[in-house]
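step 3/5: co-fold with iron/sulfur cluster
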Amino acid sequence: MNEFDSERIEFLLEEMDYRKEDDVSKADLIIINTCAVREKAKNKLYGHLGRYKGYKEKNPDLLICVGGCTAQNLKEKIIKDFPFVDIVFGTHNISSIPSMIQKRLNDNKSICSILDEGFDYDLKKFKKNYSFKSYIPISIGCNNFCSYCIVPFVRGKEISIRPEVILENIERLVETGILEITLVGQNVNSYGKDLDKPITFSEILERVSEISGLKRIRFMTSHPKDLSKELINVISQKENIMPHIHLPLQSGSNKILKLMNRHYTREAFLLLTEEIRKKIKKCSITTDIIVGFPGEEEKDFYDTLDMIEKIRFDRAFTFIYSKREGTKSADFKDNMPLSVKKALFTELVNVQNKISMEKNQSKIGCKYKVLLEGNGPRCELEGRLEDNTLVNLKYDDDELIGKLIDVEITEAKSFYLIGKKV
Ligand code: SAH
Ligand code: SF4
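step 4/5: write tokens
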């Protein structure tokens, strides 16, 4: 969602005749689009601001702006602590960036503009960073209030975008050559409940899949409590809906799941993954795990590890719990020392890496359709299988970027595959 917001900001700036400058020290305007999910994001922001202060001393005309979820969360505090910041804007007022910049250029006072709620999305106005794939938000905000999570406080209540608007925009993007669309929402599975004419996520997904020329559809994130049988059926029946579900488990302990306000049990989660694997051919399941939630004891952690071993996720994103002021769990007693959390975290990562490696090794010798997305960090071409596994290709024909090609897997690593074009 944050990446999509950056694409919206870029579009608005280009309309104002700003152009992207890769060397930040030469910029006339710097916008930091922040995250707030973990405390680390705030520290990173402060680090960047410390550096940019020096640029401003050299170039007093430089505008420094802070947006996104940390801006939404800290509000005026940013300008109070960093008076050289020119504009602070929230997650609900991105569309007013041009007028804020104009105002700041006209008078010499910093601006802090944070709306508590609102809906200012125009799906036509974003800078396409790729010619062949795009994110499309289908809802903003979240109503779930998982006890550790700051998102509902900074993104507001869940608002679904009308299906006609989503479909019309995807059709337009496909006409321009887009092959892959990722539908995004904090919980796509609760999409549409708030609309005048309610519609389910599986219904909108099915309608998106009928758009001719659209080769690949992905979506995230799916809250396990709301994932329906209809959704599993739709994914299993439609060839252009990719067989990958990101299904955050967070914890494998029923005690912790309850404290997290997740509304499912480990048993229900297990059944759900079995159902997905039974009905959707070659479906990958990935997850998010939090280690060291307040009240978590070692036996709760081993319940999580047990789920990791039972379910054998294709990949897992693991986080050490980060206390977010204002959330419910910020008031929970947290007795586990950080050193223990770190040791358990490493144990979990090692187990998951071994599973990911084994899963990847089972793909050696098999052929897959791959959408090539660009150059990877090791200078190879990088692409994704249908199930979202990353693959590197020792093939230096940049012309292939944005194309769907057949690839045979030759080697496996924990986080990616290596393959050759066939
Ligand atoms: N709406 C999505 C993603 C939310 S944030 C969902 O529900 O899955 C992405 C991930 O960050 C979460 O799944 C969770 O694992 C992690 N996360 C959120 N708040 C956190 C916190 N306070 N500490 C550590 N990890 C957190
Ligand atoms: Fe946060 Fe839970 Fe909403 Fe995801 S579903 S954004 S974890 S409150």
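step 5/5: annotate
The pocket of S-adenosyl-L-homocysteine (ligand 1) is lined by residues 37-38, 148-149, 151, 186-187, 221, 223, 248, 250, 288, 290, 319, 321-322, 324 (CB under 6 Å).
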